[in-house]
Amino acid sequence: MKRIVVRGARVVDPAGGRDEVADLFIEDGRIAAPDGSTSGATVVDADGLVVTPGLVDLHSHLREPGREDKETIETGCRAAALGGYTAVSAMANTDPVADNAAVVHEVRDLAERAGMCDVFPVGAITRGLGGEEMAELGEMIQAGVRMFSDDGRCVPSTRVLRNALTYARAFDGAVIAEHCEDASLAEGGQMHEGYHSYSLGLAGQPREAEEIVVARDLALARLTGGRLHLCHLSSAGSVSLVRRAKAEGLRVTAEVTPHHLVFTDEDLRTYDSNFKVNPPLRTAEDRDALVEGLADGTVDAVATDHAPHAVEEKETEFDQASFGTTGLETALAAVLTFVVGSGAMTLTDALEAMSTRPARILGTDDHGRPLEPGAPANVVAFDPAAEWVVEPPFASKSRNSAFLGRTLRGRVVHTIYRGELVVADGKAQR
Amino acid sequence: MNKHLLSIDDVTAEDIVRILDTAESFREVGTRVIKKVPALRGRTVVNLFYENSTRTRISFELAAKRLSADVINFSTSGSSVSKGESLKDTALTLQAMGADAIVIRHSSSGSPLTLTKWVRGSVLNAGDGTHEHPTQALLDIYTMRERLGRLEGLRVAIVGDVLHSRVARSLSFALVKVGAEVTLVGPPTLIPPDAPGWGAQVSYDIESVLPKLDVCYMLRVQRERQRQQYFPSVREYARLFGLTSGRVAMLPPEALIMHPGPMNRGVEIESDVADLPNSVIEEQVTNGIAIRMALLYLLLGGARDARPGGVSDLGGDEEEAGT
């Protein structure tokens, strides 16, 4: 019988409505009833730490199979565990594409072997991400997939997306997740279109490239009654559209990345390609609307859009650099520093947006649950006061972080995944 | 002066005057039989050209050679670049070879700034993507000052594809800095919507602007933009925004006609117009060498002990320069 006792932590449990100093008892992979006994247990001194359900990411690019030079399931999971995640979603744009059960099984097997967090494979909506033929959603559902996305692009055909939203209604909990970007309007765009793109001489992507597709997709959610999730919102207008759709009762959820909650297009003044992300960083007004949307629940979850890239894909001419920033190792600290630290959200609400709510979107009972006896022991303990500078080495194979060089407050100390200490004293154990 | 010249942001209004004054003293060198001074003897200038531009490269090459610098031309064809070497690796190689200045022309905006992360020498932007072309702006301003005797209060229209023009960006930023009044003219699809933020005015009607101008600066319009649907046809563009002889008649008689070249005769400028006496397009080219000499000289520390315009003491050493 394996036991862990986490002593003296501030337990912040958004789903269970708790915020108190308490001991947490873990036995055989589950939260146990507190019995005061530490005999035979690994005792973790958590004085001064916050203990909360393990974080859940809706949006990671783990790159395996296909681009193992950027990331593997194993290195991605280690980065996730160090960042306090006990579950991540692996996007489908691998090579081969996760548009069939075989690739889904492969991803799950590799994750199980790594054993550092749960990996939920996201299936492609269309075959080969081609946007034309629906992938075998049902077969992937049977292989355990809950979320489908052609992330990297939207489904361009309104008819195909309509049918996917409708077809997926056959499967309880299936979610169609859209990367909202009008391809012809955004074509060639290197950053947000506005004052800075014009003066930097970089082709821009207007907000409307996102908002047009958000509006279209919400209309299709209304038409089909389908379950829609909107990835990485970046504009104030998108937040308003989602707010209205929710008020109307549409079945829609949305996510925002830590970098969109922190940075703006002004950060691209130095042509630093680590700020080159898609959707692009927009203005302070957009950023503030995203924070507000997250705080009032319009935006349900924080998702990393962890997008590792090889050094040579980033250290190059700006318009030739790949889009994306890593995020798993910095997301919690970024949210604590800039969103909780600024007073825009309470700690409990922020943690809810990083665990309980994304877990609900994925339809998993193993994460984001109240820390009550019987619940799977997926838990993170972090030091809310620890300051650190974001710099290599990273557990991720890549180092293209938009937060590089920044000082963040809040650092993961222990991560317990299914009752095992996979991160102890800030070090990965596997 | 900054160590680099990446954009007009790198220079103040005072710097601009100093650069123009320095160029003034260098221009005389170009009129000598032996067109050379020893100011940068022993220094190495690399022309790193990722985009074909014969005129800008030759202008920089002549400028460096007239200052007695060693010049290396490194262009995309026939170099390791065409074998797929990255900008970073090329930069590190040039650094290892001891380049004192790198003049870079690149189709990607921001590449000169990116280059400064990997080299210790000065970097001069010879045009980057749709961002800036600061040496062109400075030679244009030099030409305006020389012909019109002042910069403050000059009324300048920049006509054409402002959106994609690095020349228009640098020129309007620089003109605003020295107190000129800039109007950007073109179809709304080719004018940045935030142009008022640059300190410039905007007009979509060239004929309403012409009578008040001191300088009418025409930009090259690429036929590519028609294919991208920025305007319906080249013919319509020429009719609405081209500088025809009829429109030249609306200009005040002393007004200058300028163009950064290469011209699309018959599109943005009628062929005869380019050859009128108040067209100074060839002078722009001549002045380009003097401006680039001044910039290399000032950036490479040849000016460490120099006063504005104080380069005459370097000009007399023809005997040595000729060796």
Task: State the main characteristics.
heterodimer; A: 430 residues; alpha/beta; Urease, subunit C, domain 1; TIM Barrel; 2 domains; 9-stranded mixed β-sheet; 5-stranded parallel β-sheet; 14 helices; globular; B: 323 residues; Rossmann fold; 4-stranded parallel β-sheet; 9 strands; disordered C terminus
Question: Your description of this structure?
Answer:
The complex is a heterodimer of chains A (430) and B (323). Chain A has two domains: 3-50 and 374-428, Roll (Urease, subunit C, domain 1), CATH 2.30.40.10; 54-362, Metal-dependent hydrolases (TIM Barrel), CATH 3.20.20. Chain A starts with a strand and ends with a strand. In chain A, 30% of the residues lie in helices and 23% in strands. In chain A, strands 1, 2, 3, 4, 5, 16, 17, 18 and 19 form a nine-stranded mixed β-sheet that branches. The longest helix of chain A is centred in the middle third of the chain and has 18 residues, at 207-224. The model of chain A has no long low-confidence stretch (mean pLDDT 97). Chain A has 430 residues and is α/β, with parallel strands linked by helices. Chain A has helices at residues 73-82, 101-114, 137-142, 158-167, 183-186, 195-200, 207-224, 236-248, 258-262, 284-295, 311-314, 331-340, 347-354, 356-362, and strands spanning 3-13, 18-27, 30-32, 41-45, 50-53, 55-60, 85-90, 118-121, 147-149, 175-178, 191-192, 204-205, 228-230, 252-256, 301-302, 379-389, 407-417, 420-424, 427-428. In chain A, helix 1 (73-82) packs across helix 2, helix 7 (207-224) packs parallel to helix 8 and helix 8 runs parallel beside helix 10. Chain B has two domains: 8-132 and 284-321, 3-Layer(aba) Sandwich (Rossmann fold); 134-282, Aspartate/ornithine carbamoyltransferase (Rossmann fold), CATH 3.40.50.1370. In chain B, the strands form two sheets. A five-stranded parallel β-sheet of chain B has the order 7-6-5-8-9. Chain B has a four-stranded parallel β-sheet with strand order 2-1-3-4. In chain B, strand 1 (44-49), helix 2 and strand 2 form a beta-alpha-beta unit. In chain B, helix 2 (54-66) crosses helix 12 (281-299), helix 5 (134-148) packs across helix 6 and helix 5 packs across helix 12. Chains A and B meet through helix 6 of A and helix 4 of B.
